[in-house]
Specification:
With about 300 residues, the chain is an alpha/beta fold. It has a single domain, classed as Nitrilase/N-carbamoyl-D-aminoacid amidohydrolase. It contains six helices and 15 strands. Strands 1, 2, 3, 4, 5, 6 and 15 form a seven-stranded mixed β-sheet that branches. A six-stranded mixed β-sheet has the order 9-10-11-12-13-14, covered by helices on one side. It is globular, with a radius of gyration of 18 Å. The structure holds the ligand NC(=O)CCC(=O)C(=O)O. Pfam families: CN_hydrolase.
Length: about 300
């Protein structure tokens, strides 16, 4: 076994804030502050707080532009920066609609405990689906896609990868973070729904964990009591490098606490050494994208 295991220097204690976002942005931000403060008073040693996809706005194609903000000068970037500093905690800021020029993106920011932005990921794969009698959603009506995979160093802990929701369906982003950049975890703020959530949410989180023998952390909005709006699945989740679910929320608003233990990664990789057994001399180039017209 030659490849080094990714370095997770010490246990990382995380708190996932599973919150529902309504139409009132100020109220959404206030709730984040309340829950984050509550998390840290319940568990003073929390290192990282994670928020859901679109935590400051409704998750609706026709609302993204209206709620969009510039980064870093916008209200939500400034709010998260100040909150991270005040609570002395790393914040993985779910995602927000970002505007740059004429384009709107679904963007996730991470702040260190001094309030500095240390990562920015624009959702690469837009959620465009159409399931008969299930759900139709087309982010690309208003959003533009990001164009890069994102990995970054979490101070004192090691390298992590960041994706947003639908990005989890594409194993390449996690593979880049884990294999090229030695990430010990993939973090995905995400808002699956009541059609695809029961089908694939756990399966995808566990698959990305097993593929790469890393932790996978998913933070969802809570289910909204109003049935006329997008129904997020809930079930914020942490999966260990064996693919085992080690923490999970229900459907309502709650905080999930979990500890990522660094000692598990080499143990898993020694026992099931797929990380060291890949046969790139055998695999063909699989970088071909099929077209619907090929079906
Ligand atoms: N917000 C999203 O990207 C939703 C993704 C989703 O529900 C899926 O099934 O994938």
């Amino acid at each position: 076994m030659s490849a080094a295991a990714p370095l997770l220097a010490k246990k990382l204690k995380v708190a996932l804030l599973q919150l529902a976002a309504g139409a009132n942005k100020a109220a959404n931000l206030k709730k984040v502050e309340e829950y984050a403060t509550q998390a840290l008073s319940a568990h003073k040693d929390v290192d990282l707080i994670m928020l859901p996809e679109c935590f400051n706005s409704p998750y609706a194609v026709e609302k993204f532009r209206e709620y969009s903000e510039q980064i870093p000068q916008g209200e939500t970037s400034q709010f998260l920066s100040a909150l991270a500093k005040k609570l002395n905690v790393i914040i993985v800021g779910g995602s927000i609609p970002e505007i740059e020029g004429d384009k709107v993106y679904n963007t996730s920011l991470t702040f260190n405990a001094s309030g500095k932005i240390i990562a920015k990921h624009r959702k690469v794969h837009l959620f465009d689906i159409d399931i008969p009698n299930g759900i139709t959603f087309k982010e690309s009506v208003t959003l533009s896609p990001g164009n890069k995979a994102t990995s970054f160093q979490l101070p004192a802990f090691g390298q992590v990868g960041l994706g947003i929701c639908y990005d989890i369906r594409f194993p390449e982003l996690a593979a880049i973070s884990a294999r090229k950049n030695n990430a010990f975890a993939m973090l995905y703020p995400g808002a699956f729904n009541t059609t695809t959530g029961p089908l694939h949410w756990h399966l995808l989180a566990r698959a990305r964990a097993i593929d790469n023998e890393i932790f996978v952390v998913l933070c969802s909005p809570a289910r909204d009591p109003d049935p006329s709006v997008y129904q997020a699945y809930g079930h914020s989740l942490v999966v260990d490098p064996y693919g085992k679910v080690i923490a999970e929320a229900g459907e309502g608003e709650e905080i999930v606490y979990c500890e990522l233990d660094p000692e598990l990664i080499p143990k898993v990789r020694e026992g099931i050494p797929v990380t060291f057994q890949r046969r790139f001399d055998v695999y063909d180039d699989v970088g071909v994208t099929a077209k619907v017209s090929d079906l």
